[in-house]
Amino acid sequence: MNATRLNDLMRELYRDVDATVAAHQPVCTNRGACCKFKQFGHRLYVTDVELAYFSEGMKHAWKPVVTDESCPYQIDGMCTAREHRPLGCRIYFCDENAQSWQSDEYERFLSRLKAIGEDVGIAYRYREWLSALSEVATPESAMPAIPETGPSVDGIRLPVIE
Fold first, then answer.
1. What whole-number distance in Å separates Cα of residue 105 and Cα of residue 21?
2. pLDDT in tens, 13-39
3. 89 in any annotated domain
């Protein structure tokens, strides 16, 4: 897999996502409460394509998952991984006016994520964010290339970034 190609495709996708969200003009009123998953009563899911991009982009600012209750990158109501945050983080707003468009936009961009995976050779998998972070991206495995003897999840090799 070509890391430069993945980075270029993901930056383009996320620019489009951010422009689409901005056009809808949602309002964030909870200062990161949605990042406290257990307290907020929801879970975030990501694709392996997003995980590969996130792991590569955040490898020098890695934060371990300490609890299954909140995202380690949310600090004092602010996201410290904004540039590399996943699709769900970009689209979800608890703003009542945002509920009508989120699902359709999410599905539209999720199909683009699947296409990016096919393009760069990362199989489609969709899994819960915190467990994926703790299983996939550790300081050692968040490096550009995951060695052949590196980690696997559920017996499946993790994405390799070259």
1. 9
2. 999 999 999 999 988 877 777 888 888
3. yes
Tokens of 36: 């406290």
Asked if the model's pLDDT at residue 138 lies above 80, the reply is no
Q: Report the half-sphere exposure of 90 (CA within 13 A, side-chain side).
A: 25
User: What distance in Å separates the CA atoms of residue 68 and residue 62, rounded to the nearest whole number?
Assistant: 17
What contacts 99, CB < 8 A, 6 or more positions away? none
Q: What is the arithmetic mean of pLDDT over 119-127?
A: 95
Q: Residue ranges of the alpha helices (H) in the chain?
A: 3-24, 37-40, 48-58, 87-91, 99-120, 129-136
Is 18 among the domain residues? yes
Q: Could you tell me if residue 162 is inside a domain?
A: no
pLDDT, tens digit, 9 for 90 and up, residues 64-83: 888 778 899 988 878 899 99
Residue 39 located in a structural domain: yes
Domain hosting residue 38, numbered range: 3-157
List % helix, strand, coil for the chain (3-state, nearest 5): 50, 10, 40
Task: Give the total number of structural domains in the chain.
Answer: 1
Q: Can you give the pTM of this predicted structure?
A: 0.80
